[in-house]
What we know:
The structure holds 2 protein chains of 2 kinds.
Chain A: H1 3-8, H2 15-35, H3 41-60, H4 62-82, H5 88-91, H6 93-99, H7 101-125, H8 128-159, H9 171-192, H10 199-220, H11 236-265, H12 276-308, H13 317-337, H14 344-367
Chain B: H1 5-16, H2 19-38, H3 45-62, H4 72-101, H5 109-112, E1 117-122, H6 127-140, E2 144-152, E3 155-164, H7 167-189, H8 192-199, E4 228-235, E5 239-247, E6 250-269, E7 275-286, E8 289-296, E9 301-303, E10 306-315, E11 319-326, E12 336-339, E13 343-346, E14 351-359, E15 363-365, H9 380-387, E16 398-400, E17 404-411, E18 416-422, E19 426-428, E20 431-439, E21 447-452, H10 460-470, H11 475-486, H12 494-514, H13 516-526, H14 532-557, H15 567-583, E22 590-598, E23 601-609, H16 613-632, E24 636-643, E25 647-654, H17 659-677
Antiparallel strand pairs in B: 1-25, 2-3, 3-24, 4-23, 5-6, 6-7, 7-8, 9-10, 10-23, 11-12, 11-22, 13-14, 14-17, 15-16, 17-18, 18-20, 19-20, 20-21, 24-25
The structure holds protoporphyrin IX containing FE.
Amino acid sequence: MTLSDAKHHPVLNRPLDCFAIMLLAAGALFAFTRYASFMDSYEQVILLAVTLIFATLAWKWRGLRNLFVGVAVLALSGISLYHADLARAEQNFFLKYFLASQTAIGWMCALFVFATFAYWLGLLAKSEFAEKTGSALTWAAVLMGATGMCVRWYESYLIGADIGHIPISNLYEVFVLFCLITALLYLHYEKRYATRKLGAFVLLVIAAAVGFTLWYSFTREAQEIQPLVPALQSYWMKIHVPANFIGYGAFSLAAMVGVAWLLAARGTLASRLPPLVVMEDLMYKAIAIGFAFFTLATILGALWAAEAWGTYWQWDPKETWALIVWLNYAAWLHLRLTKGLRGAVLAWWAVIGLLVTTFAFLGVNMFLSGLHSYGTL
Amino acid sequence: MSRTPAAFSRRLYELLSSMRFAVSLLTVLAIASVIGTVLKQNEPYNNYLAQFGQFWFPVFKALGLYAVYHSAWFLLILAFLVTSTSLCIMRQAPGMLKEMRSFRVNAREASLRQFAHHHIAHTALTTVDAAARARDYLATQGYAFRIRARDDAQGRSLLIAGRAGTGNRLGYLFAHSAIVLICIGGLLDGDLPLKAEMLLGAKKAADINLPFNQIGAESRLDTDHWSYRGNLFLPEGKRGNIAVINVDDGGLLQPLPFTVELKRFNVDFYSTGMPKRFASDIVIIDGDKRIERTVEVNKPVEYRGVTLYQASFDDGGSKLKLQPWYFSANPAAKPIDTEVGAATSMDGNKLRAEITGFRAFNVEDMTSPDVSKNTADKNSLAILNRQLGNASPAQRTLKNVGPSFSYKLRNDTGQAREYNNYMLPITQDGRQFFMSGMRESPADDFRYLRIPADTDGKPDTWFALRAEMLSDKDRALIARRFAIAAMHGPDISETMRTRLSLTAERTLQMFAAGGFDSIGTFINGTVPAEEREKAADVFVRVLQGCAWEALQLTRQNQHQKPLDMDSAHADFVRDSINAISDSFRYGAPVWLALDSFDQVQASVLQVTRSPGRNIVYLGCALLVAGVCFMLYVRERRLFVLLKDSGEVLIAYASNRRTLDDEREFSRHRDALTRLFEDDA
Ligand code: HEM
């Protein structure tokens, strides 16, 4: 093979991507050789699957590739600064003000709020620069948030070897996860549809989630890492929860696009927003992604319940509300195929869907009791 | 309008299998599901009775609101869903299967020109060359295709009909038949068959608090009953082979095809006192086979089609030795040997003590509020600072406050109150108390009687003080001593002292009648509102003074030295008065102290046989595959009509319209146009 061949080779002409994926593989290999004995076989499969999924995503989406590298660098720096001593979070400057989990998540919160303002400025003042700033801030927020989560994972093991666990087990942690996933989904569509106009709307839900997270940790000390109750000690958690939150994130995104659609259809901001057909299409894409993952998540939940509680379905409030959300979006998808129904009804339905989703996600924990009440308020 | 039955069933079929009906059904099902999440399901009927009252309780019961998801109307909605989906599949499947196989090679030129996505190009290539290029292109783009030459009124032409993404239709079939499968599987595992049996009178729910041997055959199921979910209660060291299935307000017995013995039940804790692991070491005894296994949360054990889960745990009949302390004059009663689950009669058969539970330890968060991170510090920088850094929890002071046990005291009218007593004194604000919680109904919180422990860590002093302070015999003496102690000095007249002594006596008398409550009633009845607080203060001081004298009197009677007044003793007196007052509302003439215990744990295993599970799982797999195919595979058709005249008609369509079609069509159009122009 000659050099000019290499230039046109679909793999070799992307040296940076190749390099990033090699780094990823090296990281996975390191984790495997070092920690395989602490994982059960399911967890080993999950590690492999996650590596493959991340590699595919990084290959397809350059922004995500850079994010992965950035998170790896920051999280590993944070971890190495700890010298396996929790108290260093107070002593080391970089840990205390940048990389310790709470601080990093704090940065995430702040950056999301700034991004929201930037997008709105961009939308109202028709300033492309402000919009680009919004995107950059959103990426930065995701970078800090993901770093915070990784470092938090490590911190949990510093608190106690038996306490350590992946940080997706209580309401505080999943709220951060929600922000990250919703932001990434949004960034994906931003690139796919080549428009930054909807950031102003989507970032509003994220900002609301940030607001809740802050309130929750300031008033309830919710950010504290707590050990897992026996029912949660399962590899199922590692796939059930993220799948669920891709669903929640996508549904929220669809709802915010629905809001934008409704405004534009009434003439408000119409000249600044993308055309209605584009928003309709985006709404469908988001709900389709959400529905697929939510279906998967609910099924994974049922499988887990079968193992933890002895039945795959027992009409526990959380389960039931998951079903309600799912039925709601199944109805939406059918509605879209019904002749003569497009536009306003679908947009309204998507917006109301967000209320249903929020109740399933938060309301159930606040108002109803049941087996799932791990993160109560 | 036709009214024949055939036309009617035709219209019904069309309605049930229509999309609008599907949307309505999904919505109705969602709304119906909400009800059961708002109202707690499957609680004992008594709770509902208390919540809704005599009138509404039977109404809601008839509506099935206490078990919505098993009620006839909910099942009817599900039945509609299954029927409607099945009919929909029946209606769509033939057409879809035909579509999946068809290439539509007979598409007419006129109809292709009607496509929203079509384009007319020209080529100088021969039809054969152009067709070869078009074929290669379609193949590289993942299209299957058929070629048809035709010769009609419009002249000779060649149609290349491409097709991709047939998986979409397959997805529809998968996902929708999955719904039917899941519902059927769920039905098999649900309690519908059992309910049917009970409705037909074959089986009847029994009171499961009875010993099993008193439960008759009409409440027992066959060993090989095909589907069930019951609980197996196993104390350590015991074995069992009968599970209890809860139905309505009672239960049915399910004999198992094998016997299970519990060797040991293990609970591990985190350093925070939170439980870390629940595990039962069991032996499965099947004929002469003995199989040792461990059942753990998230790690069930399956044997002969029956799955055993760690469901919960309980007391398995711990042996307790209790010391009754009667509030009446004669506290010295004989100790009682009993065990959890047993009942003893007391107080000359006027009371029955039913021991309901025992806990060997109780970990409590003893963090004082100012040690916790959540301080009153309102400085915003300080608040922010606390949010920085790592996410480790604030240092908490956790303490095991020792064993506790709970019991019900039932009086001769059958009324019962619940109690929860700690074995050891518990330190609060630096003082030690024996804590005994009381509540009238399970819906309430426990209210605690806090009996102050004396310097030996015993309740004796308080009991003696209580008897002394409330005794009719010594009341005048105590009051007198108090008056002397309170008023001495040359300028105090005897009349003043006597007045005080009489006031003290009256106060004691009122206190003996009902504690602070009766004094409060007195104050409210006689003192004007503005002065009540002051009056109450005076009464409390009188009481404290009298209690001090009463305490000294008990010591004198026991030939002990008088005490010196210091802050510890003052606290003791104050706490004692509070406890004496609370003892009037304790609802029992006796406090039970735990002397010693021998713990026996029990594990509750859930035993399940669910033959429908595999059907449901198959349905789930089909559902995921189906949804992915439906949403991510689009059926697309690309037609290239090459006419001998050199005109080329490119037409594109998909069965789901999205913006992707726009993109895909332009791509194909441009690529094909280029191919046909190119003469190389
Ligand atoms: C829980 C129940 C159901 C679920 C989860 C479900 C799910 C779906 C999904 C995800 C789609 C694809 C939508 C799209 O491509 O945008 C679909 C299409 C469809 N569904 Fe359902 N569905 C359900 C029940 C029903 C029922 C009860 C009916 C009929 C009475 C029905 C009839 C249809 C039809 C006709 C299509 C269009 C198929 C096509 O043209 O390719 N569905 N369904």
